[in-house]
């Protein structure tokens, strides 16, 4: 007999409030429906009522995990409308911050994923490693979560001690190479719980329009850093990571290898850090009339900002499309025919971010 | 004071169990609460355990500015926590609405809905500050001094 199991909006398996209604026959999931909107704060509306300086603070709080990406995309959109050139040093610092943020986000995900399959030791290991990343972020920006690094035309803070940061990043890379990668690719507990689970075929990935690590784990080589390079990715030579097995293992491996690539990018950027100013001498408060779309690769995939300016100090329209918006519905395709007990890790493998989705 | 009540008091102070509730947060505060479970901050050193069900909790940690859709859930989850209970408002959001204040979908703080015992300011607060907040709430529980701040809803 089929029965329905509601999970959420507030449930220990869910990191954030959203609702999964699972329809299952015995232990086998037949279908799920997904409901979001519990953390809708009306950010787009608020952004149209505040000026650009205030908006930077606001869009940073679209999501606490990928906060830097949101200000980066917002600034890049404003710079594009204004036809501004960002100083080289600022481009490199932006890349370093974006990749550090990816590291912390992927580590956070890896910790929560381990906890969801009951692997507490791994959760502790990963969170200990993640604290090292947080230390680097704090050393550079002064904050652990909302970094306030980007301003229109550049960045707010300089990296004054590249050698120190380089040493820290090297030790993080060693940690990833020594613990995270071997455990995620060889450990029997992890493989037993993830291999062949939650398949999202390449065709389904295209149909649902998924982005980011989910798409790359289904064999789609899409990444804004490669397709439309921004900041300093062209100078640094980005290498994309993809997997073909389309299951949760593939998503785990893609994220694990991406962390290594992030470390490589940060190290290279620090070694090649150009000199010069980090932002224009005058604070930019007004953006000339115009409109633009801007996209950037966040830890979870492509973020799109649409910005329209009427020439005043307040944007006429800010539209934010976040990656989880596209990735969340794909849980449906992944869940059909799976065991009920695997639902926790299947939904976690998407790395759903509801504060992004709902805005 | 009888033996039983002094044991009760001690255990309220020494093993507060917490339930974390996201009332529309940006996740920033939630990931800092997550860091509290990590080896560096180790919330268990003060006996605090994170619980999956409000029925097992003593302390409610609320993050976020209270979105309209989460208000009912906050009310009901607060009601499910057995007495005595304490509420810790983590971050600037549950205190004032923070940057989201003035949005039509946000209530500007949780005081309309639940009484708060400890406010931990910051956007987000550092894990150490959250830990101190949990500890203070545990002390209030042991002393029976919970329910410090409450605001009746004025409109309607
Ligand atoms: S206080 Fe700041 S970090 Fe915490 S939920 Fe609110 S906006 Fe996010």
UniProtKB/TrEMBL annotation, chain A:
Ni(2+) binds at residues 63, 66, 353. Keywords: Iron, Magnesium, Metal-binding, Nickel, Oxidoreductase. Its cofactor is Ni(2+); Fe cation. Fe cation binds at residues 66, 356. The keyword Oxidoreductase applies. Signal peptide: none annotated. InterPro entries: ComplexI_49kDa-like, NADH_Q_OxRdtase_suD, Ni-dep_hyd_lsu, Ni-dep_hyd_lsu_Ni_BS, NiFe-Hase_large. Mg(2+) binds at residues 44, 320. GO terms for molecular function: ferredoxin hydrogenase activity; NAD binding; nickel cation binding; oxidoreductase activity, acting on NAD(P)H; quinone binding. Residues 116-279, 286-359 form the NADH-quinone oxidoreductase subunit D domain. PROSITE patterns: NI_HGENASE_L_1. PANTHER family: FORMATE HYDROGENLYASE SUBUNIT 5-RELATED (PTHR43485:SF1), HYDROGENASE-4 COMPONENT G (PTHR43485). This is 2-hydroxyacid dehydrogenase. It comes from Levilinea saccharolytica. The lineage of its organism: Bacteria, Bacillati, Chloroflexota, Anaerolineae, Anaerolineales.
From TrEMBL, chain B:
Keywords: 4Fe-4S, Iron, Iron-sulfur, Metal-binding. Residues 26-135 form the NADH:ubiquinone oxidoreductase-like 20kDa subunit domain. It holds the Pfam family Oxidored_q6. The keyword Plastid does not apply. GO terms for molecular function: 4 iron, 4 sulfur cluster binding; metal ion binding. InterPro entries: Complex_I_20kDa-like, NADH_UbQ_OxRdtase-like_20kDa. This is NADH-quinone oxidoreductase subunit B.
